[in-house]
Amino acid sequence: MSEQQENRDYDHKKSVRDSASIANNQTEENSKPQQGTEPFPVWLLIICGIILIVGGTYVGANSGGFEFANNSKSGYEPGVPAGLSGKAPELSEFEKYVNGGEAVYKAVCNGCHQATGAGQGQIPPLLESEWITNGTERFAQIVLNGIRGPITVKGVSYGGQEMQAQKGALNDKQIAQVMTYVRSKFGNISETVVTKEMVESARQKFGDRPTQYTAGELSPAETMLQGDQPDWVSPEEPEAEPENGGESAQIHSGQMGNEQINSKTA
Fold first, then answer.
1. Exposed e or buried b per residue across 251-264, where buried means at least 16 C-beta atoms within 10 angstroms of its C-beta
2. Which of 127, 170, 223, 229 could form a disulfide with 117 if both were Cys (CB 3.0 to 4.6 A apart)?
3. Mean of all residue pLDDT scores within the chain
4. Does any domain span residue 78?
5. Higher-pLDDT residue of 10, 173
6. 166 in Cβ contact with 144 (< 8 Å)
7. How far is C-alpha 189 from the chain's CA centre?
8. Span 172-201, pLDDT tens digits
9. pLDDT tens for each residue of 227-244
10. Which residues of 197-223 are buried (b: 16+ CB within 10 A; e: fewer)?
11. What value does the CA radius of gyration of the chain take, rounded to a whole number of Å?
12. What angle do CA 64, 69, 73 make, to 5 degrees?
């Protein structure tokens, strides 16, 4: 009995010692500081508060209540950087006219003839085509009433696609402008334009046709639409006088006078 009692006492003491050792180890581990759990420095909090107070006071005193009228100077006009005029370049009347035709072309013609005027498939090209660079009357006939059947452009025959009449979709000015644009862009013709009055006359002459033209029914290649050109197209420049024109006239008149004197003396 005594031996069993001693064993129990020993086991109890050992268990108590082990429990105490484990508790001490846990306490020792928990007491070590962990990274990221340090308290926020009070001094840094004070500095941030001071910055916010000073900044808010300054903005409130100098913002003018964030009103535009309080922050703009009366009579102020923004300056223009050196070398710039501050305005877009002024377009000539010809450029404005051609730009109007370009807008019509992009809306109506671009899908078939392409932006480059090269055409596609059985749609003939406009680029350097004799049908746009020659007579404007047959060009107007094609735009007004359309064209069907075979047509030869720059030595190549086309005929698989028909061009529809545009007389119902476009007015006279739009047709005149797009014809001028095509001739200028793809035919390099800028010394003349097609005017609204020219197209108006062409519409009266050819507009009642119920069907599309064939190439053989069009006006001759050299026939142009009749009408006056606007004043802003290729204005006539005054002839420049020679720099020594005055001196030459004086010398010539002097020579004539001397000849007259000599003849009288003789």
1. eeeeeeeeeeeeee
2. 127
3. 81
4. no
5. 173
6. yes
7. 24
8. 999 999 999 999 999 999 999 999 999 999
9. 999 999 865 444 445 455
10. bbbbbbbeebbeeeebbebeebbeeee
11. 48
12. 100
Task: Enumerate residues 6+ apart whose C-beta is below 8 A from 141.
Answer: 202, 206, 213, 218, 219
Tens digits of residue pLDDT in 24-47: 555 555 556 666 667 778 888 899
CATH number for 181: 1.10.760.10
| Residue 199 CB partners (closer than 8 Å, separation 6+) | 140, 144, 172, 173, 175, 176, 179, 225
Residue 139 lies in a domain: yes
Any idea how long the chain is? 266
- Across 51-61, average pLDDT: 85
> Nearest CA to 185 among 121, 109, 88?
109
CB 158 within 8 Å of CB 113: no
Residue 141's pLDDT band (cuts 50, 70, 90):
very high
Q: How many domains does the chain have?
A: 1
For residue 219, give the amino acid letter.
Answer: S
Is residue 208 situated within a structural domain?
A: yes
Range of the domain at 157: 96-217
Does residue 266 surpass a pLDDT of 70?
no
Average pLDDT over residues 239-264: 48
In a domain, 130, yes or no: yes
What does the block give as tokens for 105?
């072309």
